Amino acid sequence: MLVLDQYKQQHPYLLALDSIIFGFDGESLKILLVKRGTENTTWSLMGGWLQPSESLEEAAARILFDLTGLANVYLEQLHAFGDPHRDPIVRTISVAYFSLVKVADYESKLSGTFQARWFSIYDLPPLLFDHADMVDLAIKRLRYKAAQHPIGFELLPEKFTIPQLKKLYDAIYNTEFDKRNFSRKILSTNLLIKLEEKQKGFSRKGAYYYQVDKSKYQQATDSFLNFIPS
Questions:
Q1: What 3 state SS string does the chain have?
Q2: How far apart are CA 85 and CA 90, in angstroms?
Q3: Which residues contact 38 (CB under 8 A, 6 or more apart)?
Q4: Half-sphere exposure (CA, 13 Å, Cβ side) for 53?
Q5: Chain centroid to CA 43: how far?
Q6: Closest CA to 165 of 148, 145, 185
Q7: pLDDT recorded at residue 36
Q8: For the segment 56-102, what is each residue's pLDDT rounded down to a tens digit?
Q9: How far apart are CA 121 and CA 143, in angstroms?
Q10: Are 177 and 185 within 8 A, CB to CB?
């Protein structure tokens, strides 16, 4: 009885899940936001509520699928946000996740049932509640992970050139890596398979396309790499 009484004395709280959805359009790193309401310019992360029968991971994957139509994408738990005043309506704890999606995949699945838009991570509008704090933490986590693990490939199409890959990492770190050092470092990981096909229209010679060696990629994802040149 004492245990049941202790449960009854506790206060119920809502548990939300919010997703920082990163995408890369070939030029800049972006975050997918949804407009809140019709009469203001407040934007928020995409999110939803934990259902009684779900684990946190199941709920995060379901919410991402419901809102974007995407499944089996990179999804990682980021942090729990529980400031008592973060939601002025009711005490709500949010568990934030960040995901990496290919912009082209998302655009082809967008239902248009809500107002969603990609924003550059360096030019974000005012965000709801503490969502700006979530985004700041997600960017720091992405930079750390991208330096240690080859997760950046999750943002690229199946085949890509080294210049395209460099543009992605330039965008993630908001810097300009040296072309030769970057190419040498990336190729030294032995994670890429060079294809016979070249990208046309961007230079006279054209740049060779590459693909990720999926077996080596999985091994590298589970281990640490000094992936980014200093």
A1: CHHHHHHHCCCCCEEEEEEEEEEECCCCEEEEEEECCCCCCCEECEEEECCCCCCHHHHHHHHHHHHHCCCCCEEEEEEEECCCCCCCCCCEEEEEEEEEEEHHHHHHHCCCCCCEEEEECCCCCCECCCHHHHHHHHHHHHHHHHHHCCHHHHHCCCCEEHHHHHHHHHHHHCCCCCHHHHHHHHHHCCCEEEEEEEECCCCCCCEEEEEECHHHHHHHHCCCCCCCCC
A2: 9
A3: none
A4: 1
A5: 17
A6: 185
A7: 77
A8: 999 999 999 988 888 889 999 999 999 999 999 899 999 999 999 98
A9: 13
A10: no
Burial of 180 (0-12, 13-18, 19+ CB in 10 A): exposed
How confident is the model at residue 41, as a pLDDT?
Answer: 75
The percentage of the chain sitting over the pLDDT mark of 70, rounded to a whole number, equals: 87
**Amino acid identity at 38:** T
Per-residue pLDDT at 39 exceeds 60: no
Amino acid, single-letter form, for residue 204: R
CB 67 within 8 A of CB 22: no
Gap between the Cα atoms of 40 and 127, Å rounded? 11
User: What is the C-alpha to C-alpha distance for residues 82 and 123, in angstroms, rounded to an integer?
Assistant: 26
> Which of 86, 17, 76, 77 lies closest to 48 in space, CA to CA?
17
Could you tell me the pTM of the whole model? 0.88
What digits encode the pLDDT tens for the residues 126-143? Answer: 999 999 999 999 999 999
